[in-house]
Amino acid sequence: MKILSPGVKVTDAVVTQIVVRAAETVEGARVRRPRRHLAVELDGGEARVELELAVSFGKVLPDVAHDVQERVAAALGTMCGVNVTAVDVSVEELS
Question: What angle do CA 79, 22, 41 make, to 5 degrees?
Answer without folding.
Answer: 65
